[in-house]
Amino acid sequence: MGQKAVFIQTFGCQMNEHDSEKIFRILEDRNYRLTEDINKADLIVVNTCSIREKAEHKVYSSLGRLKRLKEKNPQLIIGVGGCVAQQEGEKILHRVPHLDLVFGTHNIHKLPQLIDEVEESGKRLHETAMYDSIPSLTVPSLPVQNQIKSYVTIMQGCDNYCSYCIVPYVRGREMSRKSGEILEEIRRLSESGVKEVTLLGQNVNSYGKGVKGEMIFPELLRAVNKIDGLERIRFTTSHPKDLSEELTYSFRELDKLCEHIHLPVQSGSNSVLKVMKRGYTVEDYIRKVERLRKIRPDISITSDIIVGFPGEAEKDFEETLRLMETVKFDSVYSFKYSDRVETRASRLPEKINNDIKSKRLKTLQACQEKYTLARNRELEGKDLGVLVEGTSKTNPLRMTGRTRSNKVVNFEGFSHQVGCTISVRVRRAFLHSLEGEVC
Ligand code: 5AD
Ligand code: SF4
């Protein structure tokens, strides 16, 4: 039988991007090749995200657009995976009649079997069972030729149940992968030329917790740091309440661990944090930031903030602005609160109206732009190590890469520099990038 073409569309976070890689890996073994032309696909897989309402809306409008392709080619199989699939299950099949298959976050490994079943029976299927161990968690990242950076899943799921968050419901309970398997995968990636790995998980710093005989996160980092050939280690996402002293010291002790941490604070108001069930106060958070900066003064700190959480008063919002002024994050991803099914926050009274949420978001973003620019300007005149990733998106004569602190740097260079770490002097700082020249 000839090769078939699969088109994979991914919504949402790095975890989903990485899951899509796994989906392809599994399908590749079943004689599928990847196509970038959706019109040529025999199979379309949409990997979805439901973290916020807006993300879910995007998924449904995108699914709606696939109807005409199915009408043109009734043999086409359309499958939906990821968090919306997990959350909605069979309901998506009713809502979107041209879909063939819905598979949940724990069922990626079953995809070939489900596709065979759809082909043979012509039935529309859904599989959203959740398990105590997920077989696809062990599908290793694929070492692609000339790949410089790679993601490696170290754990999945979350047990924190922050009151606004759907993740524990759609990704399931926390599960850590075996450290031996993770290290073996990173060794293989490094041998194939990968220079930078990002360890992925919903809450990476609780890696290994409660698993008998397993390493805890700082121990895993130490082991990864010893892998030959590897130059940079990153991890995401960390929970402030689990940022231990030991982990903080890793930023000084481990030469490969990059000086950047994404540490979502969510709000600068203690009363909001309490209802969010985040498990720390503003004062705890600031103390941890101060300790990070004491141990690693050049560390870059980024965060996530939600505005308009139920009951958030103007005073609470002002406290968030004050926290931002105190910490001066390198950058912030900010979101308007939206209700998510099953979460506790969705049942809270005192919902904030959308105009107020929009106004707060705008104020917060304008404020953060000043801090981001100021933080970036501090780097002007400095010589920084840049891992060259490729040609710049906007100008093919320029090269682009990242500093260890995760800032994008564009500079005039040559394609043979890709994959090398070179020293670049920062000439000008912008909001989203730095401009430099090779020193
Ligand atoms: N509404 C708005 N933002 C949310 N996030 C998670 N759940 C919600 C929600 N219900 C944000 C948090 C989280 C990021 C990934 O998405 O800031 O850190
Ligand atoms: Fe969601 Fe909180 Fe878990 Fe992060 S730590 S995934 S915000 S429940």
Report on the structure:
The N and C termini lie far apart (55 Å). This protein has four domains: 4-127, Rossmann fold (3-Layer(aba) Sandwich), CATH 3.40.50.12160; 140-258, Transcription Regulator spoIIAA (2-Layer Sandwich); 294-378, Transcription Regulator spoIIAA (2-Layer Sandwich), CATH 3.30.750.200; 383-438, OB fold (Dihydrolipoamide Acetyltransferase, E2P) (Beta Barrel), CATH 2.40.50. The strands form five sheets. A six-stranded parallel beta sheet has the order 2-1-3-4-5-6, with helices on both faces. By secondary structure, it is an alpha/beta fold. α10 runs parallel beside α12 (282-295) and α13 (314-327) runs parallel beside α14 (354-377). It is globular. It has helices spanning 14-28, 53-65, 67-72, 82-88, 90-95, 111-121, 167-171, 179-191, 217-225, 245-253, 270-276, 282-295, 314-327, 354-377; strands at 4-10, 32-34, 43-48, 77-81, 101-103, 125-127, 149-153, 155-156, 175-176, 196-200, 232-236, 260-262, 300-307, 331-336, 383-391, 398-403, 408-412, 421-429, 434-438. β15 (383-391) and β16 (398-403) form a beta hairpin. It contains 14 helices and 19 strands. Bound molecules: 5'-deoxyadenosine and iron/sulfur cluster. The site of 5'-deoxyadenosine (5AD) has 12 residues, from β13.
